[in-house]
Amino acid sequence: MPKYNGDSITELISALCDSSLSGFSWKRRSLCGVSQEGIRRTLWKCAFRVLLSKLFQGDTSKAAASSYALASTPARNKILMLSFNLRVAGCQEEAERLECFLAQLHEGASSALTELDAVLELLALLAGSAPQPPTSL
Amino acid sequence: MASAANTNMNAVRETMDVLLEISRLLNTGLDMESLSICVRLCEQGINPEALSSVIKELRRATDSLKASENSTS
């Protein structure tokens, strides 16, 4: 897997595309005549299409207006709302840990990262987006 | 000077570890590698909402590729 040392947006998006392809069977793909480069290019185009469509979307859309209240909620509060949801779902321990980690983040290295709120916002937006791990019987 | 840089590196590492734990608890599907790429993209000024859409779209695209791989095997 190529290493990306740069911090340019294009390089980082390429790295994100590559990381989404981890565990992919390239050997079988190449037998079907699909090149690794071709798939990477397709994903890269797909990522930029979505990114650019979001960047140039006006803030006056109905969806933006209706979700204004939630959009203006601080990222930390959104995580706390998700923690509340975990409690309601009976996952007390997970909720406790989540709140503990959140507190740790805000107490400690109070800004090892410059865009901590943006990262928390991203995590809140992606919450529950991965398939649930299979539960053992 | 070097010690200050080391302290900062440790602080970043600790913050990343905490973010990964939060990410796991929220079931975001991000591993350490993709999380660190996302952090760097956020630091480059990419809007988190746009980035979350990109990630979801990439998952859809790779899932359909994987599905077609399974159907041809």
TrEMBL record, chain B:
The keyword Cytoplasm applies. The keyword Cytoplasm applies. It is found in: Cytoplasm, Cytoskeleton, Microtubule organizing center. Signal peptide: none annotated. It comes from the Eukaryota. One of its GO terms (cellular component) is spindle. Transmembrane segments: none annotated. InterPro entries: MZT1. It holds the Pfam family MOZART1. Belongs to the MOZART1 family. This is Mitotic-spindle organizing protein 1. It comes from Chanos chanos (Milkfish).
